[in-house]
Specification:
Elements: H1 3-13, H2 17-60, H3 67-75
Length: 88
């Protein structure tokens, strides 16, 4: 255990029991959330790599669209938020 963590736990040890439990729950929840995110990212690396390869191939084949063009197409029915072509 590091000196800083020892100091933090020493400070926590003098807190009222209710505050100690609150701190313990926060730490345990944080550890659990961190494990969840690490697992999610570890399991998604292959899929993300495939998506990146696909995007690069589309770009190299000039098969990709700019964000502004995509936004224009998506919002053309209600008026384009980016280029304002459809404003009344």
């Amino acid at each position: 255990m590091t000196k800083l963590l020892e100091r933090a736990f020493a400070e926590a040890a003098i807190l009222p029991e209710e505050e100690q439990d609150k701190l313990a729950r926060m730490l345990l929840e944080d550890f659990a959330a961190e494990e969840k995110w690490e697992g999610a990212f570890a399991n998604s690396q292959e899929k993300l790599a495939l998506l990146a390869d696909e995007a690069i191939a589309e770009f190299e084949n000039e098969n990709s669209e700019t964000i502004s063009k995509l936004m224009h197409v998506r919002s053309s029915k209600s008026g384009c938020e980016i280029c304002r072509l459809h404003e009344a």
